[in-house]
Amino acid sequence: QVQLVESGGGLVQAGGSLRLSCAASGRTISIYAMAWFRQAPGKERELITTMNWSGQSTYYVDSVKGRFTISRDNAKNTVYLQMNSLKPEDTAVYYCAARERKSSYDYWGQGTQVTVSS
């Protein structure tokens, strides 16, 4: 089992920045990839970025390309999401997730609220 705990959400003005953290614990050796999702009110959960645990492969949804950056610190078993140039439409609950090699994203954090005011 893998446990994930997010932190770093909050309220920020449009154009501002936030950095989210996701600390993994438990059987972290089984993690193949990490991801950040978000869910805005009344909308489906959206995959926004992924990274292999080795850091060799990343993906970004078009709406965050050039503004968000996923990174990891393997020594701390922590994944980060640096969010710059935030827009009101980025307002959502952000979740980190992890998966094993031949699996879907089975491990989820509790979510952290990000609110961007205009």
Report what the structure shows.
This protein has 118 residues and is mostly beta strands. It has strands at 2-7, 10-13, 18-26, 33-39, 46-52, 58-60, 68-73, 78-83, 92-99, 107-108, 112-117. The strands form 2 sheets. Strands 2, 4, 5, 6, 9, 10 and 11 form a 7-stranded mixed sheet that branches.
Low-confidence stretches: none
How far apart lie the N and C ends?
A: 40 Å
- Counting copies of identical and different chains, the oligomeric state is single chain
Classify the beta-strand content into a percent band: over 45%
Rg, nearest Å: 13 Å
Order of helical and strand elements: EEEEEEEEEEE
Number of alpha- plus pi-helical segments: 0
Quick one: overall form? globular
Mean pLDDT: 95
Largest sheet: 7 strands, mixed
Structural class: mainly beta
Give the proportion of residues in helices: under 10%
Instruction: Write down how many β-strands occur, each being a DSSP E stretch of 2 or more residues.
Output: 11
Short description:
0% of the residues lie in helices and 54% in strands. The chain has no helices and 11 strands.
